[in-house]
Amino acid sequence: MQVAAAKETIFQVNDLNLWYDDFHALKDVSLEALNNEIYAIIGPSGCGKSTFIKTLNLMINMEPGVKMTGEINYKNKNLLDSRVDLVDLRRKVGMIFQKGNPFPQSIYDNIVYGPKIHGIKKKSELDEIVETTLKDVALWDEVKDRLKSSAMGLSGGQQQRLCIARALATKPDVVLMDEPTSALDPISTLKIEELMSELKKKYCIVIVTHNMQQASRISDKTAFFLHGRVVESAETGKIFSNPEDKRTEDYISGRFG
Amino acid sequence: MNSRITDRIATGVFYTIAAIMVALLLYLFYFILSNGLPQVTWDFLTSPSSSYQAGGGIRDQLFNSLYILFITMIITVPLGVCGGIYMAEYAKPGKITNFIRTCIEMLASLPSIVVGLFGLLIFVNITGWGYTIIGGALALTIFNIPVMVRVTEDAIRSVPKEQKEASLALGITRWHTIKTVILPYAFPGILTGAILASGRVFGEAAALLYTAGLSTPTLDYGNWNPFAENSPLNIFRPAETLAVHIWSVNTQGLIPDVREVANGASAVLVIAVLVFNLLARWLGSVIHKKLTAGK
Question: Which of residues 83-102 of B touch A (CB under 8 A)?
Fold first, then answer.
């Protein structure tokens, strides 16, 4: 047991309840995500895992009819009761979506989009951001000669990595990933997984996946969601080898879901 | 009757209706162009219309039509695009939004002669301007704005949700997202809509009868001072447009070649509207390709 390395708590969620109009989608969810760790959220379709990850940067507010109670503490600030600055929050809490969604612009422009609007104007600074973030996502060697060509010409896996680079360019603390590899082939998936292990050295990562091998391969902690509740959350090793709850065991052994 | 026969009958009916529509359009074109095109000469397009003698042209009317169209679009496009952005991005679904939408649709379906009379009251009499280009343009604005709002709203709604999410998730404000992601993506749709609306404005007559008037002062095309009486650019002068001209020579023309002038003017009008439509399609597809191609 590591006792010494006290990792910083990034997210502390307490008794989060969420409704879409009358539908109770999240029930008493409590979780804690630490810095430099990968937190995996698994569960069958419709269990609320995507809804949950979208609450962490309040992208959920885009959906109509959402009501929430409880606490989502991001670095000791409750996102639900104070008047949070969404712009600030989302700059610090980056998000990667299921399918790579680059803007129909050049690779370079995709990455500098965030930093530019957040006020970085100097060309040399922007150039540096492009280079470091592309290196961070291991895309630099593949695209360094065509930074000015359209991002739409990249392969699916490259587009997804570009989107990760784009999210890193605003210098976040956390990267949220909503099934980032579900639309990718196995080789691209592997690359993204390697990338995540690299990224956790600098960031806190929360990932939603319904690929259980993926969760067990890369994550430090895992939470199993079912019907809007957290059935079990623990060290990934423990969840997969010695789950406490029968339903967790049934799910990870493939008996349903 | 078994379902296969019903299916055949249904298919037949739809084909027939489509064929009737195409045939009607082709006949109309054939009729207008075959009668009108022989009249359309360079001389016809570049000489002023005459009041009593034969051989008048449509120079001023053509210019007036284009100029009123231009002024109308300058007023309509910004207002319509802003309205469309509001409807697509800001308006919360509910009673008020539904009310606004109903109003917009009503505005779009107002008979143009009513808009013309309304324009006569407001832009001609109350303002004291008399028949003016600006009055005509404002009257056209009234039924052009709903179209622009609608077109913009549809174009913005068709922007993929992922694009919007991508930008918002980077901590970009809503307005910046609209400006830098949504509007560029929606641009081809908005442009196509604007050009199609232009076609309608170009051919409008009833709303202009009482607002821009039936006459045009003698114009000096060398005078580009927009405040001069005889300048074509003066927006406070009366201006008879092509569509209005067709109507007026037919109903009260004293020239001996009424038919020829009307036919020629109609041909020019139809060709212009046709060009607007083709241009809209072509531009829309070119820009769409440019945006999505993995160049």
Answer: 93
Tell whether domain B41-292 is in CATH 1.10.3720.10. Answer: yes
Radius of gyration, alpha carbons of chain B: 23
Provide, rounded to the nearest whole percent, the portion of chain A with pLDDT above 90: 56
* CA of A150 vs chain B CAs: smallest distance (Å): 6
Closest to B232 in 3D by CA, of B220, B245, B243? B220
Nearest-angstrom CA–CA distance, A49 and A53:
6
Asked if A94 and B170 come within 8 Å (Cβ–Cβ), the reply is yes
Chain centre distance of CA B87: 22
Judge whether A29 and A16 are in contact, CB under 8 Å. Answer: yes
The torsion of the CA quartet A82, A86, A90, A96, rounded to 10 degrees, works out to: 110
Residue A237 is assigned to a structural domain of this protein: yes
Contact residues, chain A, for B293 at CB < 8 Å: 150, 152
Our count of domains for chain A comes to 1
Q: Which of residues 139-198 of B touch A (CB under 8 A)?
A: 160, 162-163, 165-173, 176, 180-181, 184-185
Q: What are the contacts of B253-262 at 24+ separation with CB within 8 A? A: B254/B51, B254/B52, B255/B50, B255/B51, B255/B52, B255/B53, B255/B54, B255/B56, B256/B53, B256/B54, B257/B54, B257/B55, B257/B56, B260/B39, B261/B39, B261/B49, B261/B56, B261/B58
DSSP string of B104-160, one letter each residue:
HHHHHHS-HHHHHHHHIIIIIIIS---S-HHHHHHHHHHHHHHHHHHHHHHHHHTS-
A216 found inside a domain: yes
What pTM value is reported for the model?
A: 0.82
pLDDT value at residue A182? 87
- Which residues of chain B neighbour A152 with C-beta distances below 8 Å? 292-294
Domain extent for A27: 9-100+172-252
Q: Name the residue ranges covered by the structural domains of chain B.
A: 1-39, 41-292
Q: Is the confidence at residue A2, as pLDDT, over 60?
A: no
Q: Can you read off the two tokens belonging to residue B270?
A: 């139809």
Contacting residues of A for B169, CB less than 8 Å apart: 57, 59, 90, 94-95, 97, 167
Q: Which residues of A touch B176 (CB under 8 A)?
A: 117
pLDDT, position A110: 93
- Please tell me the distance from the alpha carbon of residue A49 to that of residue A43, in angstroms, as a whole number: 7
Instruction: Choose among B170, B180, B291: nearest Cβ to A90.
Output: B170
Residue A55 has pLDDT above 70, yes or no: yes
Give yes or no for residue B1 having a pLDDT over 70: no
CATH number of the domain that A200 lies in?
3.40.50.300
Taking an 8 Å cut-off on Cβ atoms, the answer to whether B292 and A104 are in contact is yes
